[in-house]
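Hi F.,

I've been meaning to write this up properly since the lab meeting, where we talked about keeping a consistent format for the predictions we share between groups. The idea is simple: the sequence comes first, exactly as it goes in, then the structure tokens exactly as they come out, then a line or two of notes. No screenshots and no reformatting. I'm using this chain as the first example so we have something concrete to point to.
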Amino acid sequence: MWLKLYGIALPVFFAIDMLWLGVVARGFYRAQIGSLLKSDVNWVAAIVFYLVFIAGIVFFVLAPAIEKQSWRHALWAGAAFGFVTYATYDLTNLATLKGFTLTVTLVDLAWGTVLTASVATISFFIARKFGV
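Output, unedited:
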């Protein structure tokens, strides 16, 4: 079950986050914290993040939601997991990096919450449709 859930959540997360990063918020991050951004992405680190984060969604959110047969659990636990994990990143950056703005912190924290809740809920419904 775990690998199937992972295989469902991975493309869902990637598609939604790439839409956000590549289209919706691309100019936002550059305008807010452009001096902190690398000119080229470290894809190894980015891919490792995605793999680990999605494993967290499956372990802490999606599998329990499937066991409970509750899309509401997927939604709210996903929101909580996204909030806590993105808060760790954003608030640490706000505390330690010159030029990391409160605006970026709040927008990114909201995004992480919505993203993770959405991925967990969409993945839940896909998993149910395929009998996982």
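Notes:
The longest helix spans residues 102-129.
Residues 2-129 form one domain.

If this format works for you, I'll send the rest the same way.

G.
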